[in-house]
Amino acid sequence: MALHHGTAHLKNDTLLRALARQPTEHTPIWLMRQAGRYLPEYNATRAKAGSFLTLAKTPALATEVTLQPLERFPLDAAILFSDILTIPDAMGLGLSFAEGEGPRFERPLRDERDIAKLAVPDPAVELRYVMDAVREIRRQLRDRMPLIGFSGSPFTLACYMIEGSGSDDWRTLKTMRHSRPDLLHRILDVNARAVREYLTAQVEAGVDVCMIFDTWGGTLAHDDYETFSLGYVRPILKALRVPTIFFTKGGSPWLREMMASSARCAQARGRPRRSARKPGSGDAVRARKIRARRGTRSPRRFWSRAGAHLQSWPRHCSKDANRRSRSTRGRSARLQQATVGKPADRLTYAQIYRLAGESPTRLSFPSYALVTH
Length: 373
Fold this sequence. Notes:
two-stranded antiparallel sheet; 14 helices
């Protein structure tokens, strides 16, 4: 299936060129939580909205916070402001966010009858507010840079839908996996169809890149990853007609499989396990130090037979990767303090690294992002 990169009409197409394995002037940068609490203007908009869900479900406000970081930093992409749990919320599970507690579902999937009634929501109806936000963001971007849309993976969505909230061990989900795997597969099948239709609708509304967050795929046993996670993500990636990024937290052992999944970029956060193998070799994966360098260059090799390196957020591999990581909240506080009153045109990429309190060559969050083909 031919991919549409849309580089001809964008003023900044660095991310799309990197995903297409074309030379770029610099490593494209965008932030995982690009619109967030480190920005004073985000906090003001969030207070005006009254709640996170109102903020995410109001297209005008979602557009406003999506564009806010672009006015401060020389970033290479805009990211749709939304949440990965919009799909199960549209399925009627009753999503809510309690202050300081994270997401909760009023009606988690514990009963076989409820699971049997689960249906794919219509993106043009139940999720229309997301599509309206995409169209408005695209209009206000005025072709400045690409827009990234996203969704949670079928398995990650199932974790929250079954457990009812976040968890340290996902005990309820794992109990279902062992006692009634047929019910889990039923949920995953519905989720996979829902994610495919949701991301397809985002593409039609105007996103240039789609990202799938398999946040909890790394909690699966090694042999379960293909069966319960990647096996449901692969058809979604093949169906999308724009470049895709596939992220699995703790997914280093399956990088080879992720790279063969049809994703244009495979990204895994977490230290590689000894069981992880380098593509085409029997040697254990050894992370190489990545230095953030400016200047024109062709895509670099990360591992032999792997593709070019794409670093989306300053989370590099280093010899200090096993040191205790700095807290996200601490980084946000430093960014908020450092960004007040600083116009975007005075901030360079190196300054963004320093504002986050991290060195470009010695960072404590190891992450691997490979452009695969």
